[in-house]
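Sample 1 of the test manifest.
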Amino acid sequence: MTRRDLLKAFVFLWSFLLLKEDSKAEKTNEQLHEAMFWRRVEDD
Amino acid sequence: MGKVVQCELCPNGCVLDVNQTSRCRTRINKDGRLYSLVYGKPCAVHVDPIEKKPFFHFLPGTKAFSIATAGCVLSCKFCQNWQISQAKPEETDTYDLPPDKVVNNARIYNCRSIAYTYTEPTAFYEYMFDTALKAKNSDIKNTMHSCGYINEKPLRKLCKYMDAADIDLKAFTEDFYDKICNGSLKYVLNSLIILKEEKVWLEITNLVIPTLNDEIKNINEMCRWIVKNLGSDVPLHFSRFFPHYKLTNLPPTPVETLKNARKTAMDAGLKFVYIGNVRNEAENTYCPVCKKILIERTGYQIIKNNILNGKCKFCNTSISGIWS
């Protein structure tokens, strides 16, 4: 395995981890449900 | 800038900057919009006898599919479920149970009703509301055990789907609500009146705590207010206090105190007064006219039911409640 191969493997792993983090973030937002009774304060 | 929101669900009226959470711990301001953190994520799910809520005049002997999420709008020093009511949602273990699954489970477990209970259902209002709507469409009744600390608009909207409510009237002084619960009595009294106006079946629970709310003068005042504003048919449950959470220094309520409270309530004109958390004859329902036992109970179990078509089997007196 050359240095180049090692670098490729590293980049692949790094992008995979980044993608995983991103999907986690999406999941968290999906779990939020908008509340029914609230207002923007500047509406006054 | 311009992303501050105010929650209008309960009298706390939390004003929240971005990423701040509400006092009840279940709402968050995300980029200028308010979200529930507990929708479809109950931390307590049980099948209970309806008597446990306690409801004594609502489908006796049936089961209630009971759910709660983390969070509460008050912070009572005597809370019996403080491990979940005073917890943040992320501090509890939760189930993935969206409203349709709650209704399906209620059906599977042969429950006539769903109970929003244990913590404070106002803290999971959206989840309760959507579940109640689906339950109503599936011929399953909805009940809640609440502290009644909710604003008028959301409460009236909820009443369209709520069949019964057991409200904790924790004391009859502003001082108690302020110092012990970090709330205010006047909003609870207003909620009781709204529930009555909206024709939701209503029962009231009063936890009698030694030295804090056990003065007969205040109990008498509370009972007279109930009779005058809600009627003499509203069942009142005096519940025995046991040391919990921040009030472990106090002893359990003496049974004699509870008996005195019951006598005071009946003298004030209330027809159905119960004592809970103690095995005694005041767990039974008595006919207010012929005085015979209508429903005999041991704990949450029904031993005998002498109510036929909503009437006393012995003297034919109509008994308030939802019996079938």
